[in-house]
């Protein structure tokens, strides 16, 4: 008798997420793992999450390493890069400095420690583009808001494999 069931292949992958402090990394991971938005932000030093996803006939267990973006942790953060399979570089789409740090800080660091890893560039806080409170409260925020095209250019500049935008809220 022949068993026609597909065999599920299990894989483990380590994903490290980097970016400036308060750019949305922790909320993004928390929303992905628990499917809820937690507005009570606690600055992260280092944290680890786990999630399983199914891709075709593969069950992939992701170990997600959330890193601190603050300068105080620049010497500790590289300890999390060992055996990394994928890197997410995040920036806040309504903050020009956060985007600038992608090219000046995060990409050079990742290129040094994880040169062969695929990079996904993530524009966080996408909901702010349509949030009326943000738009009406601060003309300065609107001036700093990066467009999708800006994000795509930034991704090309750092040779990211993928560019995407997201909101941990939606």
Automatic annotation (TrEMBL):
Localization: Cell membrane
Topology in the lipid bilayer: Lipid-anchor
GO terms under cellular component: plasma membrane
Domain of life (superkingdom): Eukaryota
A Gene Ontology biological process term: small GTPase-mediated signal transduction
Name of one Pfam family that matches: Ras
Annotated SUPFAM superfamilies: P-loop containing nucleoside triphosphate hydrolases
Record-level Gene Ontology MF annotations: GTP binding; GTPase activity
Protein's UniProt keywords contain Nucleotide-binding: yes
Alphabetical UniProt keywords: Cell membrane, GTP-binding, Lipoprotein, Membrane, Methylation, Nucleotide-binding, Prenylation
PROSITE patterns: RAB, RAS, RHO
PANTHER family: RHO FAMILY GTPASE
Family as reported in the entry's similarity comment: Belongs to the small GTPase superfamily. Rho family.
Protein name as it appears in the record: Uncharacterized protein
Organism: Rotaria magnacalcarata
């Amino acid at each position: 008798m022949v068993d026609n069931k597909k065999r599920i292949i299990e894989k483990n992958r380590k994903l490290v997420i980097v970016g400036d402090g308060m750019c949305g990394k922790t909320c993004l991971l928390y929303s992905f793992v628990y499917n809820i938005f937690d507005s009570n932000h606690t600055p992260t030093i280092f944290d680890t999450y786990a999630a399983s996803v199914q891709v075709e006939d593969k069950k992939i267990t992701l170990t997600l390493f959330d890193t601190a973006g603050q300068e105080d942790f620049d010497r500790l953060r590289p300890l999390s890069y060992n055996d990394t399979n994928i890197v997410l570089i995040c920036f806040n789409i309504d903050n020009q400095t956060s985007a600038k740090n992608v090219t000046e800080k995060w990409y050079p660091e990742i290129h040094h420690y994880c040169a062969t890893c695929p990079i996904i560039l993530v524009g966080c806080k996408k909901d702010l583009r349509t949030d009326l409170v943000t738009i009406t409260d601060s003309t300065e925020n609107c001036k700093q808001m990066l467009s999708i095209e800006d994000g795509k250019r930034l991704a090309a500049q750092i040779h990211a494999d993928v560019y995407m935008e997201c909101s941990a809220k939606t």
